[in-house]
Design goal:
Helices cover 50% and strands 16% of the residues. By secondary structure, it is of the alpha/beta class.
Amino acid sequence: MRTDRLVTVVTGASSGIGEAAARRLARERGARLVLVARREERLRALADEIGAETSWVAVDLTDDDAPGRVRAHLEERHGGALDLLVNNAGSSWRAPFADGGWDNLHRHMAVNFDSVARLTEALLPLLRESAPSAILNVASVAGRIPRGGAGGYSASKFALAGWSDALRAEERPNGVHVGLVLPGFIRTEGFPAQELTARRATSWLVSRPESAAEAIVDAGLHGTAERYVPRPWALAVAARALVPGLLRRLESGGGGQLFLTKTGAEREADAAS
């Protein structure tokens, strides 16, 4: 990375992991951040708090013109320089396939995978021109270990993880590193994980956005290929490869239900009904 600047785009920056990542990256030397999310008021407040070198683009990344708007902002504000792209934006809507069907799968893929690929495609020429540079994709442990009742989310994160691995090999000769962060349960506004934090036996599984932000710095700026948050989740992923039958028995026996948590939006809907 250059030492005189760090032009960074952070998506999903209005709350949760994205907000924590923006605050953490702002402490890096030469940091110049571009915050991307839908909620302009939150982006403006965060940019004002972080400092004068921070700007924002309020946009829904699933919109057709979203990648072009972010690129145009970079070209106008930073002359097309881009040193780090943090693809963090994502969401989840829990439903078994029999209830949610293809619509639920498509909704997840549009937000969690398609919008990431489209934005990366638009910004990849800038990253190559600015090389050495990096792309950091925030996937999920659910992208390595699926859970019943959250198949759409798992499918989109499996796709993101697999594509990230391939993109890393493709872009290494061009000086663009591709890092992957796979959080387990991170307590945020969108994913409060109250089902887990309410029980002492499972509360340790839930980490903080600041921990994910440190992993983003590690995998985005320090060349690490893959980071789990918290790190012990890597053992569960290894167990899936070594003893897949055991994990399948736990899932089919109801163990997987322990890890099904409602999103913040789902809790609000339940409270309103």
